[in-house]
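Weekly puzzle thread! Below is a chain. First person to post its structure in token form gets bragging rights.
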Amino acid sequence: MEDNQEQKELTREQRLDLEEKALQALLQMGCKFSVPLKIYPVKPSKWYNFLKRTFPKRTKVWHDKRIPKSWNVSVVEIPEVETERMKEVYMRHFNIKPLYLGTIDRLRQMYIGIEYDEKTIQEQPIQESKRLFKYIKQMAEIAAVAVLNNPSVADKDSKAVKELTKFFIEHLTVERLRKLAAVISQMMNPAGFTSSIRLIREVGTTKPKTEPEAQRIE
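Winning reply:
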């Protein structure tokens, strides 16, 4: 039995290889996350149901007019603490894909404006944490830029960024923001970017091989 267990255990190299493959899969496929809306689902009207029964081939898909058609929204059931029952809510879905260099550069510009001191947080955790709440709008904008991840984010007056920032301010909790920040950090792939710089520097510092005098072509 012990021999079988030893054979099943992965070596350190195998574990690292699996972790690397998992990270690459994540970076290629992106990461999905959802945010609940503050409005409750409603049922289609009786008139809509009547038309659906009468003209099954002509009836359009019912859509809640309170929700923009461009949003990816579905109805899901979640547990309600107060009633201890399941309730239906609208959930808006997002998919963060690997960030383009332009998006990362825009995020870098936004990070610079955040004053953060780990030493101060360790010494005065409550006071400093409360002070950091002044960056709520900036954090929401960072999340919006990462989610959109397209050329429009380079424009500081982008309408799409402003709209999504407003949505995140109104719907994101601190815990969801924390999880989203972790996803954004992974999608930036800082290790891969550092590796790229290392490779470029190696190319620039490597001395070209010189051919012996006898092999040179005049």
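Puzzle host: Confirmed. Bonus trivia for everyone else. Residues 1-7 have pLDDT under 50 and may be disordered.
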